[in-house]
Specification:
39% of the residues lie in helices and 21% in strands. By secondary structure, the chain is α/β, with parallel strands linked by helices. The strands form three sheets. Strands 5-4-3-6-9-11-10 form a seven-stranded mixed beta sheet, sandwiched between helices. Strand 10 (255-261) and strand 11 form a beta hairpin.
């Protein structure tokens, strides 16, 4: 199979540039081929590449096909059942890192850790921090633990329902609580790209139409009890509900509540301080 034979059919789903990028992603990650290798002649692996091509044409995300996703210069294993890390979430990590100066020995909780991309990134960048990741999904936790081991970072992963978190008996435990929880309403499902809607885990994406702030309310209430005085809460949220999330946190008694735009100019992040 030639490079053209591999990427041309992908134009049924992607623009020319996207189809080429998806093809390069597969060939570089799965086979270690450079662009020079790709351009020069037959790619071999016809049977395997044919199977990969069929999965891509069915709409499966390329990250699931190759089993890896890049996040902040690090590679994370991903698989169906675990949300694929997004560039916007990396912006959230950078906001956290930029907010805490030198870091030092602090306690950080990532609620709804998924692949562990937030928890592992913060652990790697803040080697003195004690980082914990929660998720309700045992499949996600298995993936996250594997990623922490591969990246040689120390993170404690625990199974916990974000809507029913165990509150500490003696007050503040965490310096930072961060979460990228589900925030897409069921009615918004039809507007989503097929490769997200049909393949990524619904439990990590969707909330009821009548309670779009479900997870923000639960995690915010937990953070108000579990953060240390002056501790900070960071959220990624929908551009349509960022201000509502900020308003909710103000009502809960958080101070210094502010929002931040992502690289596309959309209001997507919220930061709040306890006390």
């Amino acid at each position: 199979m030639t490079y053209a034979e591999f990427w041309h059919p992908l134009r049924a789903l992607y623009s020319d540039g996207e189809a080429r990028a998806v093809a390069r992603y597969v060939l570089e990650v799965m086979y270690g081929l450079s662009m020079a290798d790709i351009v020069c002649g037959d790619l071999k692996h016809d049977v395997e590449l044919g199977a990969v091509q069929r999965r891509l044409l069915a709409g499966e995300p390329v990250q699931y096909v190759v089993g890896m996703a890049e996040f902040g210069g690090r590679w994370f294993k991903v698989r169906p059942g675990v949300l694929i890390p997004r560039p916007e979430t990396l912006e959230l990590c950078k906001w956290i890192l930029g907010s805490i100066g030198g870091g030092g020995r602090m306690s950080i909780l990532d609620v709804g850790t998924g692949s562990g991309c937030i928890a592992c990134t913060l652990a790697a960048e803040l080697p003195e921090a004690v980082v914990t990741g929660w998720d309700v999904s045992s499949e996600a936790l298995t993936t996250a633990r594997g990623n922490a081991e591969r990246l040689d970072v120390s993170v404690c992963f625990e199974q916990m329902d974000a809507c029913k978190p165990s509150c500490p008996m003696n007050g503040g435990v965490w310096d930072i609580v961060v979460s990228n929880p589900p925030y897409i309403t069921e009615s918004e499902r039809v507007q989503m790209a097929r490769n997200v809607r049909d393949y990524e885990p619904p439990i990590a994406l969707f909330v009821p139409d009548d309670d779009a702030l479900l997870f923000y309310r639960s995690i915010g209430a937990y953070a108000m009890k579990a953060l240390k005085g002056g501790g900070r809460l960071f959220f990624e949220t929908s551009e349509y509900r960022c201000e509502a999330t900020a308003g909710l946190l103000r009502e809960m008694g958080f101070s210094g509540v502010e929002t931040k735009r992502d690289c596309f100019g959309k209001e997507r992040f919220v930061r709040a301080v306890k006390g």
